[in-house]
Structures are given as C-alpha cells and as structure tokens.
Amino acid sequence: MKKVHFLSRKQDVIVQYLIAPVRYSKVGLLERGFQTKIFFHPSPRCLSCDVLCLVSKAILPMLGDKSPVLHPTGPTIGFLEKARRYANKIVWLDSSDSTGVTHFELLPYVDLYLKKQLLKDRTLYQKEFYGGRIFSEFYHSTFGIEDELPFNQFYPLCPGFASKVDLSWNIGLGDMVGSFSRNFYQRLLADHRPPNYCFPAVAPDDSRKNVDVFLRTSTDLGRATIAFHRQELVRRLRKLKTDWDFIGDINGERLSTKEFRNTMMRAKIMPSPFGWGELGVRDYEAFIHGALLLKPDMSHMETWPAIFEESETYQPIDWGFGDLDTILCELLSDHGKRNRIASQGQATYLDSISPAGMARFCDWFVEKLEA
Q: Which residues in 124-145 are b (16+ Cβ under 10 Å) and which e?
C-alpha cells in the first residue's frame, strides 16, 4: 500500500475543485493500492509518505513565495529540498490558470510536474509569450493591445526535463454545485465527505429555456491583454443583441445566487470567454444547466478529462471574433444543431463525474503516479 499525501489549502475554491475527485475516490484509490490523505500544513507527518503531491496554488501562498521565477535559494525550492528528505516521490500539481503560466524552474527538484492544461506543442514552452499566454500574445500582435507592466514569469522548458511534464486532471471534476452552498468550506473540514455530484441537470430542450444568450463575466482583470477578449466579446454580443433583437442578458446588473442559477437554467447559449486561463467554471456551468457552450477555440491545448470536442460538445469561435456573427446567427436559428451540441456536451460532462468517470480518474491517477 502506497501512502499518497496532498498538501492543499482550504480557502481556495480552485484548489478544492482540483482536490475534489481525490476526496471522492478515496475508496477506489485504496482498492488500487493508494492510501490518500489531504493535509493543510507541511508537518513532518504530512511530508512522510511514498508520494507527496503539492498543489501550487496552496504551496506558494503558504510559503509566502511571490517571486515570478522561483529562486534556488528561495523558500519554495528550500521547502522541496526539505521534503525530499521525507518523501520518496514529489509531484508538483501546477494549478495555475492557463497553459502558458508555469514554474519549470522546479523541474530539477521534483519527480513529476503535472499541469491541468498543457499546450499540445510542447516546443512552444521554449518561447516567451507577450503577457505570458498564447492568447495574450495573439491579442497583442493582432490588435496591438499593450500591458502597463511586463509579464516576467517565464522559464523555458529544458528538453532534458520535458519527460517530467504531463497532464493532471482539470477543475471539471470539482464540486461545481457544492461551491454554491454557504457551508462549502465547512464541509471541507471533513475530507471524507464526497463532493455533491448528485444534482438535477437541466435538459437542453427544457421548456423553461427562454433566454437566447446569457453571459456574466468580470471584465476588469488588471492586464489589458487578458481583459481584452472578455471586453470585446461583451461589446460585440451587446451590439448583436441590439441589431438582431434576440433575448439576451449580456453582463447586466448583478444577480443573487438564486437568480443567477435560475437564469442559467433558462439559457440556451452561454458564452465562456478566456480569462486568466482557457478553462473556467462557466464552461461546466453551461454543461450542468443544459446550455450550449460557446467558447474560443481550444484546439491549441489538451486537458483531462478531454470533454471539449470542437462542434461536438462545445462550439468554438475564432480568437479574433471573425466568425462570431455567423456562428451565433446559426445557433439561434438552428435549434437542432444547438440542442445536439448542448446535449452531447452535457452528457459527456456528466459521464466524467459519474461513478464510471471516477473509476477512470482512479486509473488515470495510478497511471500517472506509477509512470
């Protein structure tokens, strides 16, 4: 029996989305010879294990390390050197938001570097992108968007360490429904409780669906090359709503949680723009509530579970918005196509969090840790 310890953080919803399937699959992993336990403090008991999994969004704040590139004499690498004295194997779980933001300077100090989304072309990790992301580079070079401050968190992937880099699982296996509840963080105190994967999904052809397009997103993200995509998508959708007079709620006034969820249930199409990264909670909320997911093309990246299939489970649009008008017009008029993609997206997502999906997660987990 191998002991696998996770060093995590309670008050971070993205971290908890990532940890959720581990909590849910305790028994399944135990049956496969892996005894998992989640810790919130780096005690010797936490570090003493066969495999130590360190969630980046938990570790860096815990150590107070804000360096863009982690220094060999800094607290993070010092901690990894200390952990090496206790753990047989160290896995860094990169929970950063985008494919582009990495800490490859840690590769000499860990055995495995797992990231929830990766560029398909790994050679691109030797290239420095403007704004740190492949899409921020696009908006800079195509639309001339400039950031006030440079993004200086870049460390190229050394080919000699490339074999350590692999996919982890993404936030889609997280407790998307439970995080709406007031006692979400209190529930985490008892880490044996499974996430709330039992919920009534809304069918894409539900008669209550009378909102053509629903979008709620923050547009002030602090960096111009990151915010531009959201701001431009909101601007264009609002113009189309005025020109075409469809029923839409495009970044309107603030809604209560109850109103927000009720509107998602009534939505036919839910755009989910890029933000700090490619994947977001809105993607999965669209699946849950039976809406068609309209999203920038993600063919440049890979993630797991691989539920994002172009024109099958989501409808991609061009990063430069050149096809937005045509695609939206088709989706609003072609109910059959819209419902087909929405239904397939919902079914694929629900399968990923089903008991069979959790069994696949356990197999995936074992495969990665035994590599």
A: bbeeebbbbbbbbbbbbeebeb
In three-state secondary structure terms, 22 is helix
Say how far apart CA 254 and CA 252 lie, in whole Å. 7
Q: How do the domains of the chain map onto residue ranges?
A: 2-194+355-369, 211-352
Whether residue 126 is predicted with pLDDT greater than 60 in this model: the reply is yes
Full-model pTM: 0.93
Instruction: Say how far apart CA 66 and CA 220 lie, in whole Å.
Output: 22
Contact call for residues 158 and 106 (beta carbons, < 8 A)? no
How many other C-beta atoms can be found within 10 angstroms of the C-beta atom of residue 183?
9
State the DSSP code for 235. H
pLDDT, position 185: 47
| Per-residue confidence band for 187, with pLDDT thresholds at 50, 70 and 90 | low
Residue 152: count other Cβ atoms within 10 Å of its Cβ. 9
Instruction: Say if residue 221's pLDDT is above 90.
Output: no
The full length of the chain comes to: 371
State how far the Cα of 22 lies from the Cα of 234, in Å rounded to an integer: 36
> Facing residues of 293 across strands?
270
Query: Is 211-352 CATH 3.40.50.2000?
Result: yes
Q: Give the span between the Cα atoms of 128 and 144, in whole angstroms.
A: 17
